[in-house]
Design brief:
By secondary structure, the protein is mainly β. Helices cover 0% and strands 48% of the residues. The chain contains no helices and 24 strands. A hairpin with a 5-residue loop joins strand 10 and strand 11. It starts with 6 loop residues before the first strand and ends in a 19-residue tail after the last strand.
Length: 278
């Protein structure tokens, strides 16, 4: 499988000394934010590489994503809340009374949240009301949008597939199907799929036990980037001012690598990639 077409160089350490890193999210400037779940902190990485603490006592925040209002949304599962942080790090409750792992937000403010312990996916409207819009995956974990925001992708950590759903105008989901067919470690029955991201050409990037798998629009794995270290590869994001820096959270560290492809920020206008070649 070809990997040289999407990356340059090798993995470089961005930040270390954490307990377990997760939730990489990028703002309009291209700055990276990530969580250290056991330490209940959110860290910020400036464009010059300087790392600082952005927020503490985060309710063991896991998944992060910037919304169209410029706030940083977080899955504060320790508090059974979804919260949003302003630029100063002040948190406001968006929704409560739900378990959460990861989330994504559309350009018009629709929020989708995975709840693996209860095998379901939540939808949160702008007014904070919530409802379950899918049930039944063994362990729904990573969640992201297609570049044109017509589809929602949810991976099943304990299975082999990433599922796709068509997003209806009212936020409900339809036409659930197995879409991206992930590779498994020999002898394993599960992919270990966790965090996900897309690029402007419609590829899907999935962190798995085998490494960072990237798939084309037809759902086929085109290549696998090796993990930067022997640890759980939890999540992935594109950042930097040109969105061509590939970040991953892996165990106690955050890594980066130069990319030849460009990431997508969901608070920007949706992007329609060229039709896939079958």
């Amino acid at each position: 499988m070809q990997t040289t077409s999407i990356v340059d160089g090798e993995w470089e350490v961005v930040s270390s000394g954490h307990k377990f890193t997760e939730g990489p999210a990028v703002n309009a400037k291209g700055e990276l934010f990530f969580t250290d779940i056991p330490n209940s902190r959110i860290h910020k990485v400036n464009l010059d590489g300087k790392v600082s603490i952005f927020a503490e006592d985060t309710g063991n925040a896991n998944g992060l994503k910037f919304g169209p209002d410029g706030r940083l949304y977080a899955c504060a599962n320790g508090k059974k809340q979804i919260v949003a942080y302003d630029e100063s790090g002040k948190a406001s409750v968006v929704a409560e009374g739900l378990e959460s792992n990861d989330l994504t937000i559309t350009q018009d403010g629709k929020i989708y949240v995975t709840d693996p312990n209860n095998k379901q996916v939540w939808f949160i409207a702008k007014d904070g009301s919530k409802k379950v819009v899918d049930k039944g995956l063994n362990f729904p974990n990573g969640v992201c949008l297609s570049p044109d925001q017509s589809l929602l992708y949810v991976c099943d950590t304990r299975g082999q597939f990433v599922f796709s759903y068509q997003i209806a105008p009212d936020g409900t989901l339809a036409y659930k199907q197995r879409y991206h067919h992930l590779h498994l470690v020999d002898g394993s029955m599960q992919s270990g799929a966790d965090g996900m991201e897309v690029d402007t050409e419609g590829r899907l990037y999935v962190t798995t036990e085998m490494g960072l798998q990237f798939c084309d629009q037809a759902g086929r794995v085109n290549g696998i980037l090796a993990k930067p270290q022997s640890a759980w590869l939890s999540n992935v994001a594109f950042g930097g001012p040109d969105l061509k820096t590939l970040y991953v959270t892996c165990g106690d560290k955050v890594y980066k690598r130069a990319a030849k492809v460009k990431g997508v920020l969901t608070f920007n206008a949706p992007i329609k990639p060229q039709a896939p070649r079958l």
